[in-house]
Design brief:
- The structure is a homodimer.
- By secondary structure, the first copy, chain A, is an alpha/beta fold.
- Chain A has one domain: Aldolase class I (TIM Barrel).
- Chain A has helices at about 10-20, 25-40, 60-70, 85-90, 105-110, 115-130, 155-170, 185-200, 215-225, 255-260, 270-285, 295-300, and strands at about 5-10, 45-50, 75-80, 95-100, 140-145, 175-180, 205-210, 230-235.
- Chain A has an eight-stranded parallel barrel with strand order 1-2-3-4-5-6-7-8, surrounded by nine helices.
- Residues about 245 of chain A have low confidence and may be disordered.
Amino acid sequence: MSERDVTICEVGPRDGLQNARGRMTTADKIRWIAALAEAGLPEIEVGSFVRPDLVPAMADTAEVVAAAKRIEGVSIVVLVPNRKGAERALAAGARKLTVPVSASRAHSRANIRMEPEQAVAQVAEILALARDADPPAEVAVGISTAFGCTLQGTVPEGDVVRLAEALAEAGVEEIGLADTVGHANPAQVKRLVRAVRAGVGERLVGLHLHDTRGRGLANAVAGLEEGIRAFDSSLAGLGGCPFAPGASGNVATEDLVWMFEDMGLRTGVDLDRLLAARAILAEALPGEPLHGHLARVRCAA
Amino acid sequence: MSERDVTICEVGPRDGLQNARGRMTTADKIRWIAALAEAGLPEIEVGSFVRPDLVPAMADTAEVVAAAKRIEGVSIVVLVPNRKGAERALAAGARKLTVPVSASRAHSRANIRMEPEQAVAQVAEILALARDADPPAEVAVGISTAFGCTLQGTVPEGDVVRLAEALAEAGVEEIGLADTVGHANPAQVKRLVRAVRAGVGERLVGLHLHDTRGRGLANAVAGLEEGIRAFDSSLAGLGGCPFAPGASGNVATEDLVWMFEDMGLRTGVDLDRLLAARAILAEALPGEPLHGHLARVRCAA
């Protein structure tokens, strides 16, 4: 693997498929994840340990983790919404968990049926579980609705900073800010990254951006200019949030990689192989709306 | 009109319609331009004085100018590719002309059948014509393919700076940089704006950005951070360049306004009225692909 200037975490198999219209088979998920790893993505969020009756698309995550773990050179991440999910994830052999904690009280209640304070306490329990696992697992936290919430509206920056500080105090070493509903603008990204950095320093690692208002790439550049070097994205811009009305897809991996590479930043990701992974996605989820500019430009050329 | 922090020039009636699949009637153009002015856009490029046999969509520009001039509070601009176009524009009563000059030699030849040096000499002639008009008219120059060219490939930054300097020497007081084919990235925008500013100072006024690679907004923010306060855009992202294969639409006016306003910058443009103008566009060009995130989000809400 070449050295990288930025680290892109592909979240399509989780954030994308969780919100897709169609359902991808387990075999296709595994094939797709292998192609994403083959394209050079250093980290892939392959699924979530949520209630299968609520999110049937994620019911096979244990099986996907088992297969994905066998791929070399890629870090496999799973999302866990609560303690029970973390137990299932660790039992399935997951070595990196990401826990969403909402800065918006309304979103927290709707999404995980908890107040943010309860969510922080639960993160502490998950940290303990992960520490006790053999081998110990990593835990990252994504602060969702950090830039706004369709349910609550504005999310005060102070709320986000306090939440990040509480998480750092609980022992979280990797914190991300998520623009769950795509409300962020570049000025706000710069402001909030600075404010959270002032509170928790280098524990603020990444950004998870959505392209709802078409500003995903502009917001990524804003984060980059404030020192952020880790970005979530999903191939073809798949994804959203079922509990945040109006939210459309994640920033498209291929366009993010393409822009960063054009800017002279090494992502370690190969665009042609990414398009090959996109072909698998298109085949495995027929009829799904796929976004992203790279495929369109390449096809027109 | 409120004070503005940024000035947006709507180029849809020119750049958009010149490259649209369908044809808009003169009456619809006038109705659409009136709605764009009603939305608060301070400047509208309403057409071009090009050869009607080559670009039939622009054949009625004199008539459109005559009607658009009667709208109060908006600056009406027309594109002229050469001296003959400038003569026609001035005869039609146009008071602001914009002349494209390509930094790419290959694009210059294909687009206006001239070398860049000939184009600068011709700009000097157009400046003289405009000065002698009664009342005198303004002349701006847009340096096209400033960030790359599908025909020539890379366009050296030195070529763009030298061209801008030659234009300034010829007496041009308003210069814009156009990403005609949408190859620019935010790092490049910052670099080139700085380099051209070092050469011609405040005569570098604006950016004309395309969204081919999805970076239109990111590039606008990059320009903004380097002090640019004037941006071209087209409603619904209409537009492209018929002689630059693969180029898709301009950055969408509604998304640019929306982002700037969210960033706390006053554009003087009303989003609801912009959507009303978009409805006219949709009606007057049925079947035309319309881009932009605002309409999609508003409709989903």
